[in-house]
Amino acid sequence: MNQRGVTTLELLLVVVIIGILSMVTMTEFFKVHNRAYIGAALSDLQVLRQAMAMHDAEWGYFPPDDAGTMPELITQLIDPSGNPYLTPPSGDNWNVFTYVAPDPADYESDYDLTVICNDHFNTQITVHWDSRIDYVRLGPE
Fold it and tell me: How many CA atoms lie within 13 A of 49 on its CB side?
């Protein structure tokens, strides 16, 4: 009877190949995961920027008070009928939000909307009133 088993070298080779494939897969997963958080956070900021533009078009000014949370800012974005221009997003794409209001003494000053994404690099996205977007990676978690 001729029995042939798996040698240690063959088993080790299979384990190494599986390890390499799983590392490549996880790297690609994290890339997609990061892009999804950044894209969703940017989308939330663009919708908010559009609501700010509507507020400015109807009232002639941007909300005057700084806000540390998006619901605080949304309470300032009220149309002439008393309704908010938008509802707060329900996702968890970012964990820090700030709104820096324009300087009321400077007619040409602008506002900034900033979030720190929940991605693996804590990417900070700042959207300015003129649609400029700044990205800064603050570092891994």
Answer: 20
